[in-house]
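Help needed: design a sequence for this.
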C-alpha cells in the first residue's frame, strides 16, 4: 500500500537538528520545505522533494506568503516543525543586556507565534495537522547563567500546551520535544565567554547525561517523525524528553 506523501515545513532547517529532521522526512517519502536565515549548510542536501528557502522567520509577512505559496503548490501543509533557535552564552543576570533578552525571546518564542499563526488557518481547513516544537530540557532542568534561554524554552512549552487545547477540536496536534545536550554547533555556544568549548562539552554536558553521551540530531529526527506520524494520533499537548535522562 502506498501512502500519499505528507507536506512538512521545517524552520531552522540549516541547523544540526533541522537538517537531520529533513533528511528523515525525505527518507520517509515526504515533501519537505526548509526555512532558515542561512541555507549554506544545506548546499550538499539536494532532493527532488526538498525545497530550501532563505528567510528570517521573524518576518511575519514573508512567512505568511511562503505558507500560502506552499498551499498553492501542494494543496495542504501536514506538519510544521519549529527547529530554529539561538543559544545564550552562560552569563550572570547582571550582565545580560535587554537586547540579548529580547533577541532570545524573539527568535525562540515570537517565531513560534508567527509560524503557528501562518499555518493554523490551513490546518483548520484540513481538520488535521501536527505542530512540533523543539524546546529544551533546560526548561525543567536548568543550568546557571542561561536564565533568558531557559525562560524562552519554558514559554515554548507553555505556548504548545495552550495551542494543543485550543486546536484539539480541529484535530490539530501540538507537541514539544525537550532535547538534552545535543551534538550540534549550538552546544558550544552555551559555554561561558572565554571557556574552553571542547572541554566544557565533555566536563559539563556529556557528564550531565545519565545515558552517557550527547543527543544526536538523528535522535531528535526520530522523535519528530513519531510526533508527525499517525502513530501519534492521540498524542497532543505533551512534551517528549529526548535527553538521555538529563531531566531526571
Ligand atoms: N544543541 C543543543 O544542545 C540543544 C539542546 C536543547 C535544545 N536545543 C534546541 O534545539 C533547536 C535546534 O538547535 P540545533 O542544536 O540544531 O542548533 P543550530 O544552531 O545548529 O540550528 C539552529 C538553526 O536556527 C536558525 N535560525 C536562527 N534564527 C532564525 C530565524 N530568525 N529564522 C530562521 N532560522 C533561524 C539558525 O540559522 C540555525 O540554522 C533549537 O531550538 C535549540 O534551542 C538545542
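Sure. Designed sequence:
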Amino acid at each position: 500500500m502506498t501512502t500519499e506523501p505528507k507536506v512538512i515545513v521545517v524552520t531552522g532547517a540549516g541547523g544540526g537538528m533541522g537538517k537531520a529532521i529533513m533528511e528523515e522526512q525525505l527518507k520517509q517519502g515526504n515533501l519537505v520545505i526548509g526555512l532558515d536565515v542561512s541555507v549554506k549548510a544545506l548546499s550538499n542536501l539536494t532532493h527532488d522533494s526538498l525545497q530550501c528557502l532563505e528567510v528570517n522567520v521573524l518576518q511575519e509577512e514573508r512567512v505568511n506568503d511562503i505558507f500560502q505559496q506552499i498551499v498553492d503548490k501542494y494543496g495542504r501543509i501536514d506538519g510544521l516543525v519549529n527547529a530554529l533557535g539561538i543559544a545564550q552564552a552562560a552569563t550572570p543576570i547582571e550582565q545580560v543586556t535587554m537586547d540579548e533578552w529580547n533577541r532570545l525571546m524573539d527568535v525562540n518564542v515570537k517565531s513560534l507565534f508567527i509560524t503557528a499563526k501562518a499555518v493554523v488557518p490551513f490546518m483548520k481547513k484540513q481538520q488535521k495537522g501536527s505542530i512540533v516544537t523543539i524546546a529544551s530540557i533546560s526548561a525543567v532542568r536548568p543550568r546557571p547563567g542561561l536564565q533568558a534561554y531557559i525562560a524562552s524554552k519554558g514559554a515554548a512549552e507553555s505556548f504548545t500546551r495552550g495551542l494543543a487545547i485550543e486546536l484539539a477540536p480541529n484535530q490539530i496536534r501540538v507537541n514539544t520535544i525537550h532535547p538534552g545536550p545535543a551534538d550540534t554547533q549550538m552546544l558550544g555556544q552555551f559555554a561561558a565567554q572565554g571557556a574552553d568549548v571542547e572541554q566544557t562539552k565533555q566536563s559539563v554536558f556529556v557528564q550531565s547525561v545519565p545515558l552517557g553521551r550527547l543527543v544526536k540530531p538523528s535522535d531528535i529526527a526520530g522523535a519528530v517523525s513519531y510526533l508527525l506520524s499517525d502513530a501519534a494520533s492521540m498524542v497532543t499537548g505533551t512534551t517528549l524528553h529526548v535527553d538521555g535522562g538529563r531531566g531526571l
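The radius of gyration is 17 Å.
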